[in-house]
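Summary: Need help interpreting a holo structure output

Steps to reproduce:
1. Submit the protein chain below together with the SMILES for pyridoxal-5'-phosphate.
2. Request a joint structure prediction with the ligand placed.
3. Inspect the structure token block that comes back.

Expected: a single structure record containing both the chain and the bound molecule.
Actual: see attached output.

Input attached:
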Amino acid sequence: MNRYMEETNQALLHTYNQFPVVLERGEGVYLYDTEGKKYLDFAAGYAVSSLGYGNQELNGALKAQIDRLFHTSNLYYNTVCGEAAEALKRVSKMDRIFFTNSGGEAVEGALKAARKYAYKKGTGRYEFIAMEESFHGRGFGAVSVTGHTSYREPFEPLVPGVSFAKYNDLDSVRALVTDKTCAVILEPLQGEGGIHLATEEFMKGIRKLCDEEGILMICDEVQCGMGRTGSMFAWQSYGTRPDIMTMAKAIGSGIPVGAFALTEEVAAYSLEPGDHGTTYGGNPLACAAVSKTAEIFEKEEIAAHAKAMGQYLKEKLQMLVQEYDCVTEVRGTGLMQGIRVTKPVSGITNAALKEGLLIIGAGTDVIRFVPPLVIEKEHIDEMIEKLKKVL
Ligand SMILES: *Cc1c(COP(=O)(O)O)cnc(C)c1O
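--- attached output ---
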């Protein structure tokens, strides 16, 4: 235990189980600790640092914005917010953007937008259908639609009117629909819950069900969005545009920013001045990060690269299933994949740390791989080599 860890442990509320490492700087897809030890990063700070570390174009844009102006509040227009919103519209293919400071806050806003839509239409609808094994964040609304009792139980009673369907089981969703159902919320690729990818049948089925029943479809793309699955947002590969979408994690490359987005049709009957707000949301620094991130993604075709690297990663992970009894399954797509293991996950992630590899768990028995999207084949090979030593 060094002095940084001691200081942290003495002052911080103990809510995180932290790895015994103090990170100091990053370069490319590597991080370095205070002793100078190098780590290959297959965690990307929870699927956030998609451009890796030390991207000069991004850092330059951030530094320039800090020198110009980095907070105004939403009382006033600023020079960067509109451009960032346009950029998110372009990549998300949604119509109206609301900036938040995090993913959880984007989910809170999305749920409120859905309730306001029902309120304004006078439908009396207020119930949400969410998925088992889902994760949507830590605020009361987000926790209420998170499909694992351990996240919910200590904080009950939660937001009323939430029921949970089985992921990838359309009949179980249909069985929960009532004339009070306001929205269905799901992650097209579940992250925290253990890397479960929605089938095409499920995504299309939910879209159809929602259309038939007058229910809104909310896609939570906080983790799987922004290029990670090989398309800019995961729903785009299914052709099932949601009515409301959330995003965060990678959209600002590590500057804290999230957003929720509505279609024009929903926006016309949803949140109005006075209904919703946030002091920092859309602040110039966050917006500079979003604009530059989107620009780099488009210019360098990062999503296509993630798709290609994802195929290579999948081949390599499938070989582990052949070679090791303790690896039973490969899940996910693009650069959001996981392996199911029969050994304790924490034993593997801790041993990997010693080998100079950062990986994280998902669910109870899955090792998750969410590297920066700018990795190359050689980094995947290096990761597999280190992982083999650990396994
Ligand atoms: C991480 C995550 C959230 C919460 O985002 P925060 O920025 O931690 O509040 C919400 N939904 C999904 C799918 C996530 O992966």
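--- end attachment ---

Reviewer comment: The radius of gyration is 21 Å. The first helix runs from residue 3 to 11.
Status: needs-info
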